[in-house]
Amino acid sequence: MNRTGKQILFALALLALPFLAHAAKIGEISETTWTDQAIDFFTMQQPIVRTALTGSLLIGFCCGILGSFLVVRKLSLLGDTLSHAVLPGVAMGFLWNASKDPWAIFVGATAAGILGVALVGWIKQTTHLKEDSTMGMVLAGFYGVGICMTTVIQNMAMGNKSGLDKFFFGQAAALSSGDIELLSIIALITVVVILGFYKEFLVISFDSGFAQALGMPVKVLHYALMALLTFAVVVSLQAVGVVLVSALLITPAAAAFLLTDRMHWMLVLAAAFGMLAGAIGAFVSYLSNNLPTGPFIVLGATGIFLLALLFGPRHGLLPKMLRRRKQRQRIALENTLKAVFHLSESSQFKDQVFEIGRLATERNATLHETESEIRNLVKADMASRLDSRNGPEMSGQAQFELTKSGWYRACEIVRNHRLWELYLTNAAQYPIDHVHDDAEDIEHHLGEELVHRIEERLENPIHDPHGKLIPNRESIKL
Fold first, then answer.
1. Containing structural domain, residue 125
2. Same domain, 238 and 264
3. Phi, psi (rounded to 5 degrees) for 146
4. Which of 152, 317, 324, 452 lies 20 to 30 Å from 175 when distance is taken between CA atoms?
5. Cβ–Cβ under 8 Å, residues 417 and 440
6. What's the pTM value of the predicted model, to 2 decimals?
């Protein structure tokens, strides 16, 4: 597994923590049915619901967009480092005026996050340590300091009312109007900066060396992006928590990464997935008094990632499995057509009707397997059965013939095979007795354009290295 995969798995491993979380839900509801609670949520009559939902949507938006740059730059572990590094800053912000002032905590946490990122860069530049080792040390060190500071605060006279425990696993219900204002400002700054410097961020994300050669301020852009990430982490702590915010940074972006290979679409999808995860977490949390908000936001993002992993059109496991199955069926069908061509070739192309038993011998297959192959050819309209029975059972003496399209495809497969053998012996100096297996693999994947180029390079040959005819479907007709 490559480094990016390990980092994503490391972030997703944090998802086991929701079961240890004890954060409160959005609102405490009296004894009502879950349907009544769902209706109450969607009508959004209660201010606490509107505040929690708005905050969750803004958090998902910011984390989705900025997390995309972490994923493509293979810096997924940096999100975890940032989320843990800001904890001492949260405690310092609280001590500033002995209250949970959103702006004071934001300033303190941002300063701690930027210090953590700078420390990672400094250790990497001045030592021989790898970047992942450096981030792991900074993560653990800052988190340890933060735990000690929050513990001291909890033991102080005003500590039992500090609410700092909510920063560990998050509580969307604790979001205030000041938090929403801060979230809106950070979301606006994120959009303006990303749109204004999109090309620059795109270049440094995929090829920082090329960006430096163009004269771009790579370090300035890097730290600007790190500052935005720090902002996103800090404003997400209240609803998602220190422990889980890194997963919200990576998971929506990882899901988007599986669905597109265009950066602008990845940003759009990641933002949409982050917002959807926020809405899911807020909704599920509202259904019961015992379901926390932050962990369910992350679980919502994980559900989206699993759907992308299973059903993504290009990289999804299920579409891949279906494509491989379809490819195996196509190759088996083409091998059958090739065997029919060989039978016809052995009779100087006089035979047009073939027995299934004879084809089974040519294919070195059982009669049952050959019967199944003929049925597939008939379904593909490349062959027709000549026996009078219409049932599924066919005997070894049952006869069939290829249709025009089936014969043309058989000629193409044999032509691809023999052209590739000739190309390997002439251009690559392969021994004649070593070209067959390679041609067996490549014959099913050669496109018509590449075949024409090979024919032109070989000056339209007629015979392969073994002296056999290279078929031309226009000149060989049954």
1. 3-315
2. yes
3. -65, -40
4. 152
5. yes
6. 0.75
